[in-house]
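pinging the channel bc i need a second pair of eyes. not urgent but kinda urgent?? the chain im working w is below, pasted from the shared doc
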Amino acid sequence: MHYYGNETIMSLEQVLRLKPSEVRILEWVRTYEFLENSYGIDESVPYFLDIQCMADGVRIRKNRIADFPEFICEAEHSFPTVEEALAVFHQWAEEILEKL
């Protein structure tokens, strides 16, 4: 886990263990653009996710990396509660991990 400004950066595996209370405290979490393989070498991941607490709810985004650091937002949703947003956020993380 790393901190960059007001953003917390985690691996996809760490995101799967995120709890609603942690999202509320951290306020803005995104996943790495890399994933460590079984040999300890970082491999690029074609997507990264972010979840952010906003004044009017919680926003999640699924971003496809075009030409790093450039990316395209493929999906964005807003939810009234962290619990609802986190359920979809976890689903997206699982889908990405299944593809790798």
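so The radius of gyration is 13 Å. and The beta strands are 2-4, 7-10, 28-31, 34-36, 42-44, 47-54, 57-65, 71-79. — does that match what u expected or am i reading it wrong
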